[in-house]
Design brief:
mainly alpha; rod-shaped; Cytochrome b6-f complex subunit 6; plastid; transmembrane
Amino acid sequence: MPTLTSYFGFLLAALTITSVLF
């Protein structure tokens, strides 16, 4: 399901950015 994959990718990116910032 493309939507699920996109959502997972967005969540992973957000987590990575958060780790970098904090």
